[in-house]
Amino acid sequence: MRYDDVVLRWAKIATILFTAMAVVADVCGVIITKYIAYCWAEVTDQPRVIALGVVFYIGTVGGYTVLIPLFKMLCNMSKDKVFDRENTKLMMIITAALIGIAIDCVAGGFIWSGCWILTIVALFMALVVLSIRVVFAKAITMKEEMDLTI
Fold first, then answer.
1. Contact between residue 60 and residue 27 where contact means Cβ atoms under 8 Å apart
2. Closest CA to 125 of 89, 88, 150, 100
């Protein structure tokens, strides 16, 4: 078994576990949101608690929008489809979802300042994924040009 196969297998397992954690977070979202609002954000008025809950659930939708394409991309890589246009499309979906999560966290930042940190993290991750996407796209173009010269 190749080293790459082991890494891809563990990455798929981690993606599945993160998806399961997102499902649990969705199920327990009301409790989690109230805990964050009352204990961390020190928010007690009902409209802001509800707004924080909405921000939370929109964020989990963004999380699924990141995790599902990531899992598909890992499956493609397991099939030796690495530098493929489908993977660059999946990376664009992931980047857009991360930017959406950042925008969602900006809204939450007006209720709880901890959301600003999440905004910065989401934007940084979007930048990394977008940079890797550019590298993949360039490699695909170079590969196609080499295929034409042979």
1. no
2. 100
Cβ within 8 Å of residue 38, ≥6 positions away: 44, 49
For 5-60, how does the pLDDT look when each residue is reduced to its tens digit (9 = 90+)? 899 999 999 999 999 999 999 999 999 999 999 999 999 999 999 999 999 999 99
Decide: pTM greater than 0.85: yes
Domain holding 10, by residue range, is: 3-149
| Count of domains forming the chain | 1
Give the torsion sign (CA, 99, 66, 141, 4).
positive
Distance (Å, rounded) from C-alpha 114 to C-alpha 36? 10
In 3-state terms the chain splits into helix, strand, coil percentages (rounded to 5) of 85, 0, 15
The one-letter amino acid at 138: K
To the nearest 10°, report the CA torsion of 86, 91, 97, 99.
-140
Which bin fits 81, alpha (ψ -120 to 50), beta or left (φ > 0)? Answer: beta
Please state, in angstroms and as integers, the Cα–Cα distance from residue 121 to each residue in 2, 25, 149, following that order: 32, 19, 42
